[in-house]
Amino acid sequence: MFRGVTQLSLDTKGRIAIPARYRNELGSKCSGHLVVTADPSKCLLVYPQPAWEPIEKKLSELSSFNSKVRGLQRLLIGSACDVEIDSAGRILISQPLRRYAGLSKDVVLVGQGEKFELWDERQWDLQIEEALSFCEDDMPPELDGFSL
After folding, report:
1. What's the whole-model pTM score?
2. Which of 15, 36, 94, 145 is the most buried (most CB within 10 A)?
3. 49-61 and 67-79 helices, crossing angle to 10°
């Protein structure tokens, strides 16, 4: 289970270091083989390869005659890149994916259970501000009765 926010730096070659606390789990789950893809929210999704495969299969099985489905297939499957954690614990984020997500030097890796989101730090800060700005009238019905 991946959780928490980690501030990272993207190096000049486009690599990030996977935090040490996740490396053992990623080693046992997927031998360091990950899939990085675009998300409609303009961040990147980072999946252990075995967690990504059923998602890709389900997306591929959807009808491509629906233009919205086809657009999502193009974005998620078409942007997906296989990456491997190197001996220094880093992964390379491709230039097209870095450009898509607007990644600068300062990024955040956000644990989301079975996957990570990778955000430009400024965009992540905006996402958090937006998440905190809703009022009770804007509460999605799925959150009715939800309590922490």
Report:
1. 0.91
2. 36
3. 150
Tokens of 108: 């955040």
Chain-centre distance for alpha carbon 20: 18
Identify the CA nearest to 94 among candidates 48, 37, 33, 147. Answer: 37
What would the CATH number be for the domain defined by 2-132?
3.40.1550.20
Alpha carbons 120 and 143: distance in angstroms, whole number: 28
- Give all strands (DSSP E) within the chain, no chain letters: 2-9, 15-17, 33-38, 44-48, 81-84, 90-92, 106-113, 116-120
* Burial (CB count <10 Å: 0-12, 13-18, 19+), residue 124: buried
Write out pLDDT tens, residues 39-55.
Answer: 999 999 999 999 999 99
Length of the chain: 148
Angle at 5 between CA 146 and CA 79, to 5 degrees: 95
Tokens read off for 138 = 């804007």
